[in-house]
Amino acid sequence: MFGEIRNEHGERLDYTFHEGSSDRIVVIGHGVTGNKDRPALIALAEGLAAAGISALRFSFSGNGDSEGAFTDSTITKEVADLGKVIDALSEYKVCYVGHSMGGAVGVLRASIDERIEALVSLAGMVHTKAFAEREFSDAVPDEGFMWDEPDCPLSQIYVDDMATIDSVAKQASKFAVPWLLVHGTEDDIVPIEDSHDILQFANEETELLELPGVDHVFSDDGTPIMVKKVVAWIDRNL
Fold first, then answer.
1. pTM for the whole thing?
2. DSSP helix/strand/coil, 167
3. For residue 172, how far is the Cα from the chain centroid?
4. How far apart are CA 59 and CA 172, in angstroms?
5. How far apart are alpha carbons 51 and 62 in whole angstroms?
6. How far is CA 122 from CA 160, 179, 191, in A?
7. Alpha carbons within 13 A on the beta-carbon side of 197
């Protein structure tokens, strides 16, 4: 429907559109080593469309079937990718939903882009430097891999970008749109404390939804409850 969407480097961004019945659309972004086809993200897009709200889930450059090199994938680059996706949606009221590192992308984009009228962070990463140090300290940049996955080499560019950003917490005070933080209590990738920390800087329209027993990727029963809660919140706030 939107034709090819390319980022500022000319790389094609792969996306799937789920058509709703109104002028509202939710852009869905994934986390590090992920792509648009993660089960929870597909379920969310389908739930939104069933509620009459369009959804567009996409893979950041270098991920999934999008063009670009994975080793060039950084939060900074993905913030720019998201801007190009939103450029294609001028006829819609836009909400952005970001999972994990995609949540950090959303905070940074919302802080500079008034076209985002509502924001949802799913297990959103906040302290980027600490995340990289905690999860990838056993891998040598430009030699090793993220979580020992051969398709996901750890680049020095990525590590440097995570360190430069350090934390997106203080960027939360730079926008005032409705914002929902969703975090499972059993998340062992991005600790729920990240959401508690950023909540201190967020505007008064921010809500934190804790999901007892739910992990980082909303496995098993975590997906249906997440979808139900997020769709209802977006329907009220967009």
1. 0.97
2. coil
3. 15
4. 24
5. 31
6. 24, 11, 12
7. 16
Which CATH code of 3.40.50.880, 3.40.50.2300, 3.10.129.10, 3.40.50.1820 fits the domain covering 15-127+166-237? 3.40.50.1820
Which two three-digit tokens encode residue 195? 């959401």
Q: Which residue has the tokens 């034709």?
A: 3
31-43 core/surface letters (b: 16 or more CB in 10 A; e: else)? bbbbbbebebbbe
Query: Domain segments of the chain: what residues?
Result: 15-127+166-237
Question: Residue length, the chain?
Answer: 238
Residue 201, pLDDT above cutoff 80: yes
pLDDT in tens, 5-57: 999 999 999 999 999 999 999 999 999 999 999 999 999 999 999 999 999 99
Place of tokens 């975590």: 222
Tokens of 88: 């294609």
